[in-house]
Amino acid sequence: MLMEEARYELIKYGKKLVETNLTKGTGGNLSVYDREKELMAITPSGIDFFEIKPEDIVIMNKAGEIVEGNRVPSSEWEMHKILYDNRDDIDAVIHAHTTFATVIACLRWTLPSTHYMIAVAGKDVKCAEYATFGSTELAKNSYEAMKGRKAALLANHGMIAGSTDLLNAFNIVEEVEYCSEVYYRAKSIGEPIILDDDEMDRMAIKFKTYGQRK
């Protein structure tokens, strides 16, 4: 079985998305990339995260072809693949329908630096232009929005985050959702103060060594 360890990791973090209320039902998808073998392991389409078995994980090659698995891959597989093809700092991707990040995405706003923890993703989190889910256009739009960052909002849809592994990608999802909720709540009673570029530059340096390392 190809990428066996990655399959179990995908199942683990898929369940964790639901358990921590970061997504609902089958909303969202996760993948891991083996850069040496140029293979992507991705969750299947439309299966409850608590029902997915290791053999349900789909393995795809660099050309976007299924090389192992009998399930249909997530409809968003191109959105994952485009990052692996163009970003050497990303080997794991999580797309989720988190509540507060999706609220901001439905307004099609950039999530600003109202809280320093946004630095796990970048100095802010941009919102990708709208495109139909599962489309090549959405993959391209999300890639553009993530340039220089490790997360993006997806207009009227949700969010996406990437990192070196699922542990750190999941942490980015959590923090972007937290910062989205803080911004939402602050915006509801006043005008949030945005941290300036100098402070976010300092955060960028600090966050180079932030997070768990395998």
Map the helices and strands.
Blueprint: H1 4-19, E1 29-34, E2 39-42, E3 58-61, E4 66-68, H2 77-86, E5 92-96, H3 99-107, E6 127-128, H4 136-145, E7 151-154, E8 158-163, H5 166-189, H6 197-206
Parallel strand pairs: 6-7
Antiparallel strand pairs: 1-2, 1-5, 2-3, 3-4, 5-8, 7-8
Helix pairs in contact: 2-4, 3-5
Biggest beta-sheet profile: 8 strands, mixed
Distance between the termini: 23 Å
Nearest-angstrom radius of gyration?
16 Å
Q: Please write the string of helix (H) and strand (E) elements.
A: HEEEEHEHEHEEHH
Number of strands: 8
Which runs of at least 5 residues are low in confidence (pLDDT < 50)?
Answer: none
Mean pLDDT: 95
The percent range for strand residues is 15-25%
Helix coverage percent of residues?
25-40%
Shape assignment = globular
Protein structure class: alpha+beta
Number of helices: 6
Arrangement of strands in the largest sheet: 4-3-2-1-5-8-7-6
